[in-house]
Specification:
This protein is an alpha/beta fold and 369 residues long. It is 41% helix and 15% strand. The protein has helices spanning 16-29, 64-76, 106-109, 116-132, 141-151, 174-184, 203-211, 233-240, 258-264, 279-286, 297-303, 315-327, 329-343, 348-362; strands at 2-7, 37-42, 51-53, 80-85, 98-102, 135-138, 158-160, 191-194, 221-224, 247-251, 267-270, 291-294, 308-310. InterPro entries: Glyco_trans_1, Glyco_trans_4-like_N.
Length: 369
């Protein structure tokens, strides 16, 4: 028996990205398992339906440092086992071959995004997690490069396993688009940003750029996603420019509604200064929406020419990219077609297959399942 233990204790609302990663990865892994292989989730999401085991400590409970390793030893009792942590807060002496998923180095690459204490905690916890891990999964080549430059992790210990849009991210029928448009009170034509409002997302620059094209009127700008009140600058910029209803702060959107929200948008704009991957760009492309995004390493990697890119530090370039795609219908159609093709190259099945190969390699089982 080869048991692969995926720690799902951080698959909670506080970490929505990790929750989606664990759910999508585990669901795609299960059909790939060979006879004698088993996936075990520690407090995993019910949608995945592998074997689940209740963990004896929450992710941030200091007792996890000895309770989780004891549980892992029990789970290993009937054969080989490995431990896969999707987060750097983990037991640092797990006692099993260990795999870690690494997403980004935002606290180090963009220190203004987090307080000094949080930066210190990230560096310490990530360093301990990397030392405890036999191998690391990076979600992009950009994340892999950050591992090497920020933490000096050898290339031989890193495998890139990209994220992917869920299968439900695809162009939506008119009835579904209409339902979501009515639910959120959206106009027939609008520009869309989806994501949080932390400083590295660069929303003040997007609003400054949009203000420069408000006359003649551009389609309204809809900013959707969870809002952190510690960072009021985007709303302050919109008020400063007196944009009124031209900028709509939509707040969180139900996961079920996201494909139709993307599909309804005339253009998706993503001005982020730093991303470990840039999943919203891929999701928008998968829904057939043309994309304008930053020319940062991970976004160039994900979009690969399908999106119109700009320097996120230049308000003028952001403005020009929006105007170009708003006014150029043929280019919008071309970008949408290219985006669909690009998004089709990513799948959770491929990511799961690459992850399973790492599992088998770590356990010394090199046979193909």
């Amino acid at each position: 028996m080869s048991r692969y233990i995926l720690d799902a204790r951080t698959a909670v609302p506080h970490f929505p990205g990790i929750g989606r990663y664990v759910t999508n990865l585990s669901s795609a892994l299960i059909p790939l398992l060979a006879a004698g292989e088993e996936l075990t989730l520690l407090d995993g999401p019910a949608a995945a339906q592998p074997v689940e085991t209740s963990a004896p400590a929450t992710p941030f409970d200091i007792r996890r440092q000895w309770r989780i390793p004891r549980l892992l030893r029990r789970l290993r009792a009937d054969g080989q086992a490995l431990y896969h942590s999707p987060y750097y807060v983990m037991p640092y002496r797990p006692g099993l071959p260990t795999l870690l998923t690494f997403y980004d180095a935002i606290p180090l690459r963009f220190p203004g995004a987090v307080p000094a204490r949080a930066r210190l905690f990230f560096r310490l916890a990530a360093t301990l997690a990397l030392r405890a891990s036999d191998h690391v999964l990076a979600i992009s080549e950009a994340a892999r490069n950050d591992l090497r430059s920020c933490f000096r992790v050898p290339a031989s210990r890193i495998t890139v396993t990209p994220l992917a849009a869920g299968a439900h991210y695809k162009p939506q029928p008119a009835a579904e688009v209409g339902r979501v448009r009515d639910k959120y009170g959206l106009p027939e034509r609008f520009l869309l940003y989806l994501g949080i409002n932390k400083p590295h997302k660069n929303l003040p620059a997007l609003i400054d750029a949009f203000a420069r094209i408000a006359s003649p009127p551009a389609p309204p700008l809809v900013i959707a996603g969870a809002w952190d009140d510690r960072y009021p600058q985007p709303k302050q910029r919109a008020a400063y420019h007196q944009l009124g209803d031209a900028v709509r702060f939509l707040g969180p959107v139900n996961e079920r509604d996201l494909p139709a929200l993307y599909s309804a948008a005339a253009l998706f704009v993503f001005p982020s200064l730093y991303e470990g991957f840039g999943l919203p760009v891929l999701e928008a492309m998968a829904c057939g929406t043309p994309v304008a995004c930053s020319n940062t390493p991970s976004l160039i990697e994900v979009a690969a020419g399908a999106a119109l890119t700009f320097d996120p530090h230049s308000v003028a370039e952001i403005r020009d990219a929006i105007v170009e795609l708003v006014e150029d219908g043929p280019q919008r159609a071309q970008r949408a077609e290219q985006g669909l093709a690009r998004a089709g190259l990513y799948s959770w099945q491929a990511t799961a297959a690459a992850t399973l190969h790492c599992y088998r390699h770590l356990l010394g089982n090199l046979r193909e399942g």
